[in-house]
């Protein structure tokens, strides 16, 4: 596809795909932005709202592998358009403010349209937008655009919510805005997204692929190793750096919030751009990812001893944010170096996501228990130190994983299919 398309059109497609990616992971996680409003407007309990989050995570988990199969079995453009229209239709039903049972079902469909018909086709299309030397930039820019788009949508929705004196109507209007955006992006994809030439020629071969083929592929497990280490650091950092600044550094909440805005929005964009450029400048993507892992490990260890110097600790958390977001922006770009053929991208990304994202389920409960235990023992710092050690260990293992990918790339003579 990249050989028959102008640079301008490739960039437009990258923006459109990133726009949809930013949206499909926004509305299913409304509770992160509108927790109290959902409790009041939908008449939910805290337990019910928590169970919605658990159900989304569980259905996402079981959708990853089927998503990979569908990406290889069916046309990716069709699946992406279905995702956009499906999210629009499901969101429209959501705006009717139904009962708790219906809301659970709705979030199940959100998982279907954001994972089953979207996730692997999205990654597959990104990979087909450029050759192996461009993968770092493509994945990095997509992650950066996703962050920017999610930010813009968040502020747009906050503005919409604020212009209504009736809170319920405002909440419904926020959902209607998302419905309209989903429809617009679906129409744009229909007219702009091309049917891939490589994909069409490989449909017969792809149809024969099975889960066992992906599981037998060495590159699948190497990529799982890289991503599991990366997602461990990401979950640990995003979940606890904010509360570290208030509970350990004793910063006022307004200052901590300002730092969080810089960390969650500005740095996410910068890390996507910078990480992608660095990944493509080095001889292999895995070398760049290894550097990001090494920096994350080193900074997390420094944080164990820096809490008495508040300014230094704040700077370290910001630099750590740049590093772990750079990992997240580029770790998918190592697939080619690990030895995953283009025609197996779909099924392999499904398997990799299913296994590699398991730390999403494990890290938060474990880290939370460390903090609770440390607080009960009267030494809160010890709980956060354990989290920083976990980040360092994941960073060291990530270096090893990246090294193994780099060795695989070199041993194959740089001849894996692009």
Automatic annotation (TrEMBL):
Coiled coil: none annotated. InterPro entries: MFS (IPR011701), MFS_dom (IPR020846), MFS_trans_sf (IPR036259), MFS_Transporters (IPR050171). It is found in: Cell membrane. The keyword Aminoacyl-tRNA synthetase does not apply. PROSITE patterns: MFS. GO terms for molecular function: transmembrane transporter activity. The chain crosses the membrane at residues 12-30, 50-71, 78-96, 102-123, 144-164, 170-193, 220-241, 261-279, 286-303, 309-327, 347-367, 387-405. Pfam families: MFS_1 (PF07690). CDD domains: MFS (cd06174). It is a multi-pass membrane protein. This is MFS transporter. It comes from Eubacterium maltosivorans. The lineage of its organism: Bacteria, Bacillati, Bacillota, Clostridia, Eubacteriales.
């Amino acid at each position: 596809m990249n050989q028959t398309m102008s640079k301008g059109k490739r960039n437009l497609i990258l923006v459109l795909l990133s726009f949809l990616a930013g949206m499909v992971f926004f509305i299913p996680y409304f509770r992160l932005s509108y927790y109290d409003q959902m409790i009041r407007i939908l008449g939910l309990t805290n337990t019910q709202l928590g169970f919605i989050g658990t159900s989304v995570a569980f259905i996402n988990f079981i959708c990853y592998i089927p998503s990979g199969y569908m990406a290889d079995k069916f046309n990716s453009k069709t699946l992406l358009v279905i995702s956009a229209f499906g999210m629009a239709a499901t969101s429209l039903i959501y705006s009717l403010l139904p009962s708790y049972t219906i809301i659970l079902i709705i979030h199940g469909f959100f998982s279907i349209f954001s994972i089953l018909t979207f996730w692997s086709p999205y990654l597959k299309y990104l990979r087909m937008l450029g050759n192996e030397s461009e993968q770092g930039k493509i994945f990095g820019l997509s992650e950066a655009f996703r962050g920017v788009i999610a930010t813009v949508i968040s502020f747009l929705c906050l503005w919409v919510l604020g212009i209504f004196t009736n809170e319920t109507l405002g909440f419904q209007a926020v959902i209607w805005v998302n419905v309209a955006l989903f429809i617009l992006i679906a129409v744009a994809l229909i007219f702009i997204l091309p049917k891939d030439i490589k994909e069409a020629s490989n449909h017969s071969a792809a149809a024969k692929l099975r889960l066992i083929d992906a599981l037998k592929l060495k590159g699948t497990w190497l990529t799982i190793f890289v991503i599991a280490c990366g997602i461990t650091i990401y979950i640990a950092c995003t979940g606890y750096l904010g509360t570290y600044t208030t509970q350990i550094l004793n910063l006022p909440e307004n200052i901590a919030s300002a730092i969080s805005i810089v960390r969650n929005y500005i740095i996410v964009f910068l890390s996507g751009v910078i990480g992608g450029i660095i990944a493509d400048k080095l001889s292999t993507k895995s070398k760049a990812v290894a550097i990001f892992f090494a920096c994350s490990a080193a900074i997390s260890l420094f944080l164990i001893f820096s809490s008495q110097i508040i300014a230094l600790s704040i700077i370290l958390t910001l630099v750590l944010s740049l590093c772990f977001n750079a990992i997240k922006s580029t770790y998918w770009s190592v697939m080619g170096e690990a030895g995953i053929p283009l025609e197996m991208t779909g099924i392999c990304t499904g398997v990799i996501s299913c296994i590699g994202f398991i730390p999403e389920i494990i890290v938060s409960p474990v880290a939370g228990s460390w903090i609770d235990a440390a607080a009960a023992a009267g030494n809160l710092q010890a709980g956060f130190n354990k989290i920083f050690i976990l980040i360092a260990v994941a960073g060291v293992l990530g270096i090893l994983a990246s090294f193994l990918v780099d060795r695989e790339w070199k041993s194959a003579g740089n001849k894996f299919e692009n």
